[in-house]
Amino acid sequence: MKPWTASRLLATCGISVALWAVIAGACLMVGSTGWGWPTARELALRWPNVMVASIVGAALSAAGVAYQAVLQNVLAEPYLLGVSSGASLFAYLSLMATGPLSSILAPLSQQGASFLGSMAVLALVLALSQRRGKLEPVMLVLVGIIVSTFCGAAYLLVYHLNLRHEISFGTGGPLRLLVGGINTSLSTNQIAVAACLIFIGFLALMYLSGQLNVAVLSEAEAQSLGVHIDRLRWTVMIAASLMTAAAVALSGPIGFVGLICPNLARVVIGADQRRLLPLSTALGAGVLAIADAVSRGLTHWTSGPLPVGVLTGILGGPFFLFMLWRSRLTTDS
Amino acid sequence: MAKPIDYRFLRIFKMPLMQIDQLDFSFGVRPVIAGVSLSLSPGELVMLLGPNGSGKSTLLKLALGHLHGHGTVQWNARPIRQWPRRQFARHVAYLPQSPWYQGDQTVSHTLRLGRAPYWHAFGIESDHDLQVVQSITERLSLQDLLNRPMDELSGGQRQLALVGRCLVQEPKAMLFDEPTTFLDLRHQVELTRLLKSLAVEKSIGALMASHDLNLAAAFADRIILLHEGKIVAEGKPTDVLEPPLLQRVYGLPMKRIDDGGRPTVIPVL
């Protein structure tokens, strides 16, 4: 047993970054033109993809850890809670309102709308799935998915009613925020704003990571261990929703990254949130970078670039069912 | 030769850890606690007895400030509402009736959580935090279990780990809500004996809600008998455990056997 010191914290973050860097490096070797050491031209085309995928994956995975801890539900993640879809709907609406994005203000307003959407949906889902003040894990996810489906339908409705098709939405067109995908048409401002917000959210979660360990206990125990549990829950959910919203404004709702990565990391390194958070974040960044690389590598066989949300959905669906089946086993016995 | 000064007279200045005065509490219109006054001093094990619904758990929650009623609850002569929560957690430990834990969390993780009220931002621990965990591990002989996940332990081992978490808080007082409920006979006795000896050796005031009259008879320094939210008797086990009183409170005819000065009470079935 060793104390969790500042140096161990930094070492863990260092290892996490190194893990991600290796994966990201490998992902640079893959492109729509084939495998191998990239030429300078290929590198210039690929690195924005890898960076955006990593930022988005990191945000979704960190948010997953946070939601899972404060909602005491291993199935909670931005996509299944509907938070991602709410954010994407609002981001789309703000895009329609502001038109093409160029200045620093536009990405900020899009981020703001996205955050508003994520918080609105989270509050709605929490309110609807509460029964006698209790949150039942499967009920929460059920309500989340239904609200998410609704947001998707509302998105399409707005799209079909909309006549402002002259607005440029970049690659993927106006539907790019409906199915999660890594975009290459984002402005540097947009990426920078999202990265800053995600980093702030991550720092806030790390600051609270000790208290997150206590949050998984009962309320009475958390109080007796000196934690203001309500205050903590709200702070953490706001931080996680901020990160989700920032990621979704870049990529649209990408499912299951926030479910798979934290749960895999938990199996490997255990339940201590102080280690789980940085490692899951790095794992999320790596996994989405890989998924993006695979989808770029598959371009040869697919019609146009494959949205990365398709891949995470194909992998994540069965993973979710497995988690559900396993949680059934443990709660019934 | 001069006689050494007997400092025991200073005891009159020793304040109780906890002092509750004329406490009332109700859920809606139904009174749950009515006019309760009690105190807790360092080094004593006080057992809170009473049938289901007599207000034992509620009284513990009121003492902890998880619920607020009318009347005063003071710790170290300071009203409960004025205690910052982290500071209070360094002073008083609490084990609820059904504590939660993640199945995959190890015993050492459980113990370390007891230091949460002392952690810095980012959950940073000091060397002292680990030393405390170490010494409690040795005191409770948990060395061999440290790396075992909680859901692989027996009920007795799990409860021991959770008691360990409370001790790791280095509290002046510990409040337990029926800690022996899910244990077999031997572990019930062992856990209560352990709590009693910990109270003495670490000079901790221990308040324990329980259903077991005979455990209380054997180990409690003081028994508080609750009935419909009121204290109906308080004092030494020999004084409180009187069959007529118990019959009134529990609604069952009771018989008492005195064996070597220690009473044993059994229901007459």
Description of the structure:
The complex is a heterodimer of chains A (333) and B (269). Chain A has 333 residues and is mainly α. Chain A is 71% helix and 1% strand. Chain A contains twelve helices and two strands; from the N terminus they run ααααββαααααααα. In chain A, strands 1-2 form a two-stranded antiparallel ribbon. The model of chain A has no long low-confidence stretch (mean pLDDT 88). With 269 residues, chain B is α/β, with parallel strands linked by helices. Chain B is built from nine helices and twelve strands. The longest helix of chain B is centred in the C-terminal third of the chain and has 17 residues, at 185-201. In chain B, 42% of the residues are buried. The mean pLDDT of chain B is 92. At the A-B interface, helix 7 and helix 8 of A face helix 2, strand 6, helix 3 and helix 4 of B.
TL;DR of this structure?
Chain A has 333 residues and is mostly helical. Chain A has twelve helices and two strands; from the N terminus they run H-H-H-H-E-E-H-H-H-H-H-H-H-H.
